[in-house]
Amino acid sequence: MLFRSCRAAAAVVVMAGFAVLPALAQPRGPDIIPEVVNRVIDSVVVISTSEALPGVDRVPPPDLGPDSDLDQFFKKFFDQERRGEHGERPTGEGSGFVVDAKGIIVTNAHVIEDADKIEVTFNDGSKLPATVIGRDKPTDIAVLKVTPKAPLKPVRFGDSDKLQLGQWVIAMGNPFGIGLSASAGIVSGRNRNIRNGPYDDFIQTDAAINKGNSGGPLFDLDGAVIGMDTAILSPTGSSVGIGFALPSAEITPVVAEIEKYGAMRRGYIGVRVEDVPEEIATRFAIADGKGALVSNVIDGGPAAKAGVKIGDVVTRFDGKPVADARALQRLVGSAGIDRTVKIALLRDRKPIEIEVRLAEATPSAKQPPATAPAPQASVPPAAFASLGVELAGLDAAVRHRFDIVPSVEAGVVVLAVQPTSPLKALGIEAGDTIIQVERQRVTTPAAFERRLAALKSAGASEALTLVASRAGSMRFVRIPVG
Fold first, then answer.
1. Position 413 pLDDT exceeds 70
2. Average pLDDT score over residue span 173-193
3. 214 catalytic, yes or no?
4. Which of 48, 136, 140, 201 is catalytic?
5. Would you call 110 a catalytic residue per the annotation?
6. Annotated catalytic residue, options 48, 50, 95, 110
7. pTM of the predicted model as reported, rounded to 2 decimal places
8. What is the pLDDT of residue 442?
9. Which residues contact 338 (CB under 8 A, 6 or more apart)?
10. Where are the beta strands (DSSP E) in 11-163?
């Protein structure tokens, strides 16, 4: 009853010379949950799926005659095996919610996976068949369509970007197939990466989420959907207080694209990015190391045409702050296509802004080429005594020798590192590829040598160098120039 007593009428009372100041307004708590649940429950649905069993209806039960004691037994047995007149077998149940009065429903893509038939059950017990408008596996979102006799009650989306830790939320759905249920808890965490896909940005909550809740809405206390229940972390398969929901900021653009085009068309700018390493954050005076470091720019891509360069740090995209590499990936992916957006960068400590025309992320654009282009000529190895390394240009033979991934497209490969080499202390090893030295690409040992010599002549003692591992991960290190 603490929440009620804290909302007593404000007053100033003076006793024995002490002033009791007016009580501060308290945020709404659990006592408002029944009101919210009653207001939104007609927007929440149960989703049942089944798959067809080809040919099962062609096997009739044995004809034992109407007077046989076993006749009813066999009829019941075969009815259960056939699962109805159309030879269907239930495959699962999940949850969903109405987003349009005309019959648009959102759920998780995994809820309807491999389903031949989808049925939606509403709070009043009515049922409607559903068809799939489209699904997006990377975000695990599916959009369904039913044809209601009367307008449905849609949910209202809230702003998941404004969620705060400790904020009360309500999870609704169909746990274990027992029917529409509600559970309450708080926002336990934000921006969780559970390695469910490339766009992970989950809300963590301790509101009970169980099997069957998938696809159900996560409401705030204003009755707005701020997430979709999607996954749990549990050693038992049941809720242990760690559940995850897709944020509404991720759901709404995907649903809009699927409704309009039947699929999610993702934006593409043609860069590879990494989280900002401490070295770069210190050099550029980036607060909290936020941003996304451009480690490669795809030739001919939108970013290359706009003038983005390796070593740039993206701080804002389309007006939104970029916290890290994953955040930029999500922002680009949900930004649509065939539109021009502004990107804020840091380059050599200077903030700049450029405009990039978004293309569509086709499968060929998302993935590096299966094989690297053949080099025009093999570059002989060269030894650098001062650095204690042996280097060679990246050609087909060197790529094969070290099993260097295709995403490392060009550079100078470290063939050997002496035990006393200063590069060894930096973690550089055979098979690593030097891609850039102080913002300039190097593709041959001779170009690498010239670049170090120029920096030494300019008075530099170290050079910020971009290095790729044979597996393709990028990092910046400072190497001595002589």
1. yes
2. 92
3. yes
4. 140
5. yes
6. 110
7. 0.69
8. 92
9. 357, 358, 359, 360
10. 13-15, 18-20, 44-52, 88-100, 104-108, 117-121, 127-136, 141-145, 156-157
